[in-house]
Design a protein that fits this description.
By secondary structure, this protein is mostly helical. The protein has helices at 2-19, 30-37, 39-61, 63-84, 92-109. The longest helix has 23 residues, at 39-61.
């Protein structure tokens, strides 16, 4: 469940990141073109995803620890997105594969 909430936070921050006017876009993909055309809807979706993830973290860890873990994950993933996406190190496939590996580890090992 932690990997799912982390992925939701990652997705919502990425959506907020792409709606910024200061974002440098190197290779326009279909999803990024849709995000550029529907900025207000994308911001609403990203905000709803953030609310869902903070509620899930509070459910999993309790009120204080859930909020703290939410902000720690948000700051960590925010820094990761801001640093690595403009350089092209992260793409959709690598993010999805990492998510699957962490989900498998969480479900079967822990």
């Amino acid at each position: 469940m932690v990997s799912i909430t982390t992925f939701i936070i990652f997705l919502s921050f990425y959506l907020f990141y792409n709606t910024s006017k200061k974002t440098v876009k190197y290779d326009p993909k279909k999803s990024n073109i849709w995000i550029d055309k529907n900025i207000q809807l994308t911001k609403k979706i990203a905000f709803i995803l953030l609310i869902i993830s903070i509620i899930l973290n509070i459910y999993l860890f309790g009120f204080g620890a859930g909020i703290l873990i939410f902000f720690v994950i948000l700051m960590t993933l925010g820094g990761l997105i801001i640093l690595l996406f403009p350089m092209g190190y992260l793409n959709y496939k690598s993010v999805f594969y990492c998510f699957l590996v962490f989900l498998i580890f969480e479900l079967f090992i822990f």
